[in-house]
UniProtKB/TrEMBL annotation:
<dbReference type="InterPro" id="IPR009492">
    <property type="entry name" value="TniQ"/>
</dbReference>
<dbReference type="Pfam" id="PF06527">
    <property type="entry name" value="TniQ"/>
</dbReference>
<feature type="domain" description="TniQ">
    <location>
        <begin position="4"/>
        <end position="158"/>
    </location>
</feature>
<protein>
    <submittedName>
        <fullName>TniQ protein</fullName>
    </submittedName>
</protein>
<feature type="domain" description="Transposon Tn7 transposition protein TnsD C-terminal">
    <location>
        <begin position="203"/>
        <end position="567"/>
    </location>
</feature>
<dbReference type="Pfam" id="PF15978">
    <property type="entry name" value="TnsD"/>
</dbReference>
<dbReference type="InterPro" id="IPR032750">
    <property type="entry name" value="TnsD_C"/>
</dbReference>
Length: 626
């Protein structure tokens, strides 16, 4: 229980409030102070992002502003400099972690650990601020704005900051009082290496963000502002891609290399995935706020231009409503479409818009739109809709038109006319030799084209090489084997079964040599396991699948009589989780071999891991962060 509740000074670092309490409480042990503050024995004192604030705030009167944890988070920690540059869900996670006893999650959520910049364990003070605070409040205190990484010049006094490196034995054991810092031999002036002007400008921007901390803003708002300005300044191609070389060139001219090096933010022209590139491309990884401020200064020149820019929402196809491009509708080219779903082309990275009109007409195109006429461009017609289909009915039933004339009136090809006439049950009324499109049924689609030739190839091999095993057949005709395994498995199994040796088939009234059978089946199981692992499309290693491949259905029931086979199976058979991990490893190895960027979303998509265990999820995260 607190003997009294310290009243915060303006811009006072929260840990300094704790150190003032310790000094005035008369406690000898810092652990007693921590227990007073948080009501927990063995509490740890984090200087930058303290946790357990709900416990601390409970000491203040209920109606007081000091009873609100978020007051301390926004006004007395450096969280406000991070807030505009992290996703909303991460901001909520950090706030909850600071309120509760979850300190370990904070740095990870803010991306501090991943960013690898400005990691110095120190406290910064301005000697002029110390004297001024003593005159105004009777004592000096540590300012929270001064502790923001990169804040190396006191803007108020135009003075280089001094830095106190926290001894390791004190960093977690106690809060350090400013009197101890100001008299310490460990307090040294920061070496700005001739970059006073650049650090002054950066420190000024830090103060402005801290004061106008954009509490309701998040990284998506920031990215929208960036893209607006990138486009305005000519860094975006008509297809919506960033002109990386031009952006890098101009950025490297804007900032001296030495200045960026001090901030661990230097970029190389050949680096295709630098932090500048990731900011411009709206990367999902958290990027340190100092790098955001550097980018803002480069792009906007004045930080207020960034703050005061009205909320912009980049839309690659312009603002709604969009025109309906149904050529047979009365509202053709009128701006009445309200729905546009945007996805990303997996090959080009360009946005793809799918526009849906109430008349049922759906079309899509790649973006972004670069000129006004792009609004009237169709890439693909996804669905024609009821108005278009009714027009087709009228032409077939009432007009007695040729298919060619119908295609002209409906703005489509003749095969499309036949396809929809078939769908509407009017195919018999058409005078045409054109056959409708085959259905999407796989059996129908592939029967005429692939089934017979592939079967012939397998039969030819079986006749030519009757001694070949299943694996040898597969290697000789890999394409045919995999297609038949997927679409004609029963036929394939029946042919391979007939051609296989009859060694595993027990003759009537003969005594089984289980030791010999175990040896032979074990060899077949090992070959089958290698075969399954070699499939282009990974399949889970199960006893059922292995028994099918070796043509020995009683495998599961006879395992007690097959000890070596049982060991082989127990070593190799996969749980769902094991199978997911193997698929993930295959995808990651493939991406690394092709020198492609490895992201969590890409691994999940390519490996088909939308449903996965916590262990697999954590393994994906660990792999991405390597």
């Amino acid at each position: 229980m607190l003997n009294f509740t310290p009243i915060p000074y303006p811009d006072e670092l929260l840990s300094n409030i704790f150190s003032r309490y310790h000094k005035m409480s008369g406690n000898i042990s810092y652990f007693h102070t921590l227990e007073d503050l948080f009501g927990i024995k063995g509490a740890i004192a984090a200087i930058d992002f303290p946790s357990k604030l709900t416990n601390f705030c409970s000491h203040y009167p209920e109606l007081s502003k000091y009873n609100d944890e978020e007051y301390f988070i926004y006004e007395h920690t450096i969280f406000s400099i991070f807030k505009p540059f992290i996703p909303e869900n991460r901001a909520s996670k950090v706030i909850n972690a600071m309120k509760n006893n979850e300190g370990k999650a904070i740095n990870m959520s803010l991306g501090i650990m991943a960013a690898g910049i400005c990691k110095s364990k120190s406290l910064k003070v301005c000697s002029s601020c110390i004297e001024e605070d003593k005159e105004l409040y009777g004592e000096a205190y540590i300012h929270r704005t001064h502790q923001v990484p990169g804040y190396n010049v006191c803007v108020k006094h135009n003075q280089i900051m001094s830095e106190f490196f926290i001894p390791y034995d004190k960093s977690y054991a106690k809060y350090i009082h400013i009197d101890e810092i100001s008299k310490s031999e460990l307090l040294v002036q920061i070496d700005l290496n001739c970059y006073f002007k650049e650090f002054y400008e950066l420190s000024k921007d830090i103060e402005i963000i801290n004061t106008n901390y954009l509490k309701n803003s998040n990284v998506l708002n920031s990215y929208d502002r960036y893209y607006y300005m990138l486009n305005k300044k000519g860094y975006v191609t008509p297809k919506g891609r960033i002109k990386r070389k031009k952006l890098y060139h101009d950025f490297m001219i804007f900032y001296p290399d030495g200045f960026l090096s001090i901030l661990d933010s230097k970029i190389e022209e050949k680096d295709e995935e630098s932090w500048v590139y990731r900011i411009a491309y709206r990367d999902k990884q958290v990027i340190h706020p100092i790098r955001h401020l550097l980018f803002i200064k480069f792009l906007f020149t004045d930080i207020y231009d960034f703050i005061n820019l009205e909320e912009v929402k980049y839309h690659p196809f312009g603002n709604k409503p969009w025109p309906c491009l149904n050529p047979v509708a009365e509202h053709y080219k009128e701006n009445i479409v309200e729905i546009c779903e945007i996805t990303t082309d997996s090959k080009t990275g360009r946005p793809v818009g799918k526009f849906t009109c109430n008349c049922g007409f759906i079309y899509s195109r790649r973006g972004p739109d670069s000129v006004e006429n792009d609004r009237y461009r169709i890439g693909n017609k996804k669905q024609f809709g009821h108005i278009w289909e009714q027009k087709l009915k009228d032409l077939i039933i009432n007009k007695n038109c040729s298919v060619k004339k119908m295609s002209r009136e409906l703005y489509c090809d003749e095969k499309t006319v036949v396809k929809y006439a078939n769908k509407l049950g009017l195919l018999d009324l058409l005078k045409t030799n054109i056959k409708p499109y085959p259905t999407k049924n796989t059996e129908c689609k592939y029967h005429a084209y692939l089934s017979e030739p592939y079967k012939d190839e397998i039969l030819k091999l079986l006749k030519e090489f009757p001694q070949y095993s299943r694996t040898q057949i597969r290697k000789k005709a890999e394409k045919e084997y995999h297609w038949l395994y997927k679409y004609r498995r029963n036929w394939l199994e029946s042919k391979l079964l007939k051609s296989s040796n009859s060694e595993s088939k027990r003759m009537p009234n003969s005594k089984v040599n289980w030791e010999e059978r175990d040896r032979k089946i074990n060899e077949k199981v090992k070959i089958a396991i290698d075969e399954i692992k070699g499939f282009k499309k990974p399949m889970r290693l199960t006893i059922g699948l292995i028994s099918k491949i070796i043509n020995y259905s009683p495998l599961r029931e006879k395992l007690d009589k097959l000890p070596n086979t049982k060991i082989t199976l127990e070593t190799n058979v996969e749980s769902i989780e094991d199978f997911h991990i193997r698929k993930m490893i295959i995808i990651v190895d493939d991406l690394r071999e092709k020198d492609k960027k490895i992201t969590k979303s890409k691994i999940i998509e390519l490996a088909g891991l939308s449903r996965r265990s916590e262990k697999v999820n954590q393994l994906i995260i660990d792999t991405v962060e390597l």
